[in-house]
Amino acid sequence: MRKLEAVASTRRSGASQANRRRLFFTEIGTCFLLPVIHVALQYIVQGHRYDVRENVGCVIPVLVSWPTVLLTYVPPLFVSLAAAVYAGLNTGRYLRLISLAIADVCLVIFGSLFTMTHDLKISGGLRPYLSWHDAHQNFGQITQITEDWFTSASTSDMSVLGGLFPVYSFTFFILFGFGEEAIREYLRLGKLLANNWMSFRFKR
Question: Superkingdom of the source (predicted)?
Fold first, then answer.
C-alpha cells in the first residue's frame, strides 16, 4: 500500500543516495523485521507446538488471554489503519487506491474481530495469563484433531476465515488488473506473443 501511495502521490522525491538508503531500510523494516517480531511475540501466548486439524492442516494454538488480544489481534488492525492513512488521498484520480484501502481496512478488521470472536467462543472466554510456565506446560505437545470434534458452526467459521485471503486477492486484481495501464500492458504482451508466433510459423 505504501508503494502504491508513493506512485500515486504528486509530491516529488529525489533519487539521491540518501533517499534510496532510507527507502531500503524502510522496506526491510516493514516487510521483514515487523513480521519477524510479530511472529516471535506469538511464542508468548503459544500454548503448545501446534495442532493438526483434519482437512485444515497445522494450526498454531494460542492461549486466549489479554496478552493474546494485544499481540495477535491488535497488530493487524494497526497495520491496516496505517495502510489506509497512506492511501488517504482525496482526488478522483486515486479512486482505485482509495477503494483498495477501504477493502483492506474492512477485510482486516472483519477478519481480526471474527478470529477473536471465534477463539473466544471455542475457549469459553478470556483465560487468565498466570505465568510463563503455566502458559507453556507440555509445549512439545502436538494435538491431532479430527473433523468430528468441530461443530458445524466452527467449521463454517473456519471456512469464512479461509475465504478472506482469496477475496482480498480478487479485490486487488479487480481494482488494478483492469486499469488502463494494465490493459495497455496486456495488449502489448499479446502483440509481442502474436508477432513471435507469426515469426516462428514463417521460419518453419
Answer: Eukaryota
DSSP state of 178: T
Q: What is the Cα–Cα distance from 123 to 154, expressed in whole angstroms?
A: 12
| Cell numbers that stand for 179 in this block | 486499469
Strands 50-53 and 57-59: antiparallel
The grid coordinates of residue 47 equal 500454548
| pLDDT tens-digit readout, 165-196 | 788 788 878 877 777 777 888 888 888 888 77
Q: Give the CA angle between residues 133, 134, 135 to the nearest 5°.
A: 95
For 11, the grid coordinates are 509530491
Edge-to-edge strands of the sheet including 142-145? 57-59, 50-53, 142-145
Sequence ranges of the domains in the chain: 2-203
